[in-house]
Amino acid sequence: MTGTGERAPHPAAPSAGSGPSAGPAPASTSGADPGPDERAARLLEAFAEHLSVERGRSPHTVRAYVGDVRDLLAAARRRGGGDPADVDLALLRAWLSGEARAL
């Protein structure tokens, strides 16, 4: 932990401004701004690659984590949001609560 109470970044973590989330996403092949589903798919793909390549997680872990994020994004769509940016703390808490009740 740093002196500010925040956790120091992992030495293998990409620095700010690098990695798959750095900068704008590549333009879609149609030339139009990608829709929420395309953005979500790109983010999920980048997340899966990060878990697998940069964090060394097993294929089973990657599949489970990506599946959980897909479920969370589906909950956002049911709530009326279609973009990954629509996920907020209230939605995350509601989704986690539902997941816990399902156990």
SS class: mainly alpha
How much helix, percentage-wise, in residues?
40-55%
**Which outline best applies?**
flat
**Biggest β-sheet description:** none
Q: Report the end-to-end length measured between terminal Cα atoms.
A: 33 Å
As residue ranges, the low-confidence spans are: 1-28
The total beta strand count reads 0
- Output mean pLDDT: 78
Total number of helices: 3
Strand content: under 5%
Nearest-angstrom radius of gyration?
Answer: 16 Å
Helix and strand succession? HHH
Relevant terms:
Integrase_SAM-like_N; Site-specific integrase; disordered N terminus; mainly alpha; Integrase_recombinase_N; 103 residues
Question: Explain this structure to me?
Answer:
- Keywords: DNA-binding.
- One of its GO terms (biological process) is DNA integration.
- It comes from Pseudokineococcus marinus.
- GO terms for molecular function: DNA binding.
- InterPro entries: CB, Integrase_recombinase_N, Integrase_SAM-like_N.
- The protein is mainly α and 103 residues long.
- The chain has a domain of 66 residues.
- Helix content is 50%, strand content 0%.
- The chain is built from three helices and no strands.
- The longest helix is centred in the middle third of the chain and has 20 residues.
- The chain is flat, with a radius of gyration of 16 Å.
- The relative contact order is 0.09.
- The N terminus is likely disordered.
